[in-house]
């Protein structure tokens, strides 16, 4: 792992360190906030200062504390969506690629059906129908995210199945679950890992979009997208209110994309 890290460019290393820091902040957010993010701690609309590095909002709550908690409510759900979608998609693709025949055809057509649908619009409709909330948002996004991993897994499994070491394993008597988990899936894992890493930024943007549209957690939950949406009218006066949460979203997505590019380069041996 250290050797792979050293093979990345300086910018990609910084991105990986940023992602590790962001994850740590998300996990420890309740203990890192300098103030209670839900109560008034000072006057409203205070600009950034030493006491309040991100200023205060329209109620007088510390914006830095709310942004730290907002990272937790955006980053961890994004990782959860990627993990759940990856598990579902990998399982479907593994079964389709290994079984072949009618099983492969049925699962492939099901995957194609989800892929051709306008996923973001339907996910918005699902959340609107189920009601705003983090769990409903997770369900709506996962429903339309797993097919990409299913298609990639199926293609990788078919490619791995034709390789000499898999043929040798078959000739030596290896079959069934052991062949899948020991020989086929490990060959597909690098591609899935790179794809999942690059997808994190997209998921974070979609989560932020949902909260921006009011389909995330209800107020006063400090979601980054919702904080940006509620304070857009203050952009020309209290600029820090919409700009700083939006900047954090940008940093999250940029770091994830750069780290994904670095991982892809390492996997390809560049």
Brief overview:
Helix content is 75%, strand content 0%.
Oligomerization status of the protein chains: single chain
State the shape.
Answer: elongated
CATH superfamily assignment?
Answer: MetI-like
Report on the biggest sheet: none
Unreliable sequence segments: none
- Average pLDDT confidence is 87
Number of helices: 10
Please tell me the total number of domains: 1
CATH top-level class: Mainly Alpha
Number of strands: 0
Order of helices and strands: HHHHHHHHHH
- Percent helix: over 70%
* CATH-defined architecture: Orthogonal Bundle
Alpha-carbon distance between the termini?
15 Å
Q: Rg, please?
A: 22 Å
Strand content: under 5%
**Fold-level CATH name:** MetI-like fold
* Secondary structure category: mainly alpha
Could you characterize the architecture of this molecule?
There is one protein chain. By secondary structure, the chain is mainly alpha-helical. It has one domain: MetI-like fold, CATH 1.10.3720. Helices cover 75% and strands 0% of the residues. It is built from 10 helices and no strands. The longest helix is centred in the N-terminal third of the chain and has 37 residues. The radius of gyration is 22 Å and the shape is elongated. The two termini are 15 Å apart. The model has no long low-confidence stretch (mean pLDDT 87).
């Amino acid at each position: 792992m250290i050797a792979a890290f050293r093979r990345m460019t300086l910018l990609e290393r910084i991105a990986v360190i940023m992602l590790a820091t962001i994850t740590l902040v998300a996990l420890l957010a309740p203990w890192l906030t300098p103030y209670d993010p839900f109560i008034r701690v000072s006057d409203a609309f205070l600009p950034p200062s030493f006491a309040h590095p991100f200023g205060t909002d329209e109620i007088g709550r510390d914006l830095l504390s709310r942004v730290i908690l907002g990272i937790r409510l955006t980053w961890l759900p994004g990782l959860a969506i990627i993990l759940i979608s990856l598990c579902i998609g990998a399982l479907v693709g593994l079964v389709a690629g290994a079984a072949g025949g009618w099983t492969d055809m049925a699962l492939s057509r099901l995957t194609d059906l989800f892929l051709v649908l306008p996923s973001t619009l339907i996910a918005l409709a699902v959340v609107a129908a189920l009601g705003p909330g983090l769990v409903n948002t997770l369900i709506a996004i996962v429903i339309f995210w797993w097919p990409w991993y299913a298609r990639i897994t199926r293609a990788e499994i078919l490619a791995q199945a034709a390789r000499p070491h898999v043929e040798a394993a078959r000739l030596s008597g290896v079959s069934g679950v052991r062949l899948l988990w020991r020989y086929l899936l490990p060959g597909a894992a690098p591609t899935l890992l790179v794809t999942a890493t690059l997808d994190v930024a997209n998921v974070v943007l979609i989560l932020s979009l949902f909260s921006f549209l009011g389909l995330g957690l209800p107020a006063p939950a400090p979601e980054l997208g919702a904080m940006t949406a509620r304070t857009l009218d203050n952009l020309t006066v209290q600029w820090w209110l919409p700009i700083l949460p939006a900047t954090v979203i940008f940093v999250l997505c940029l770091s994830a994309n750069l780290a994904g590019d670095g991982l892809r380069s390492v996997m390809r041996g560049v």
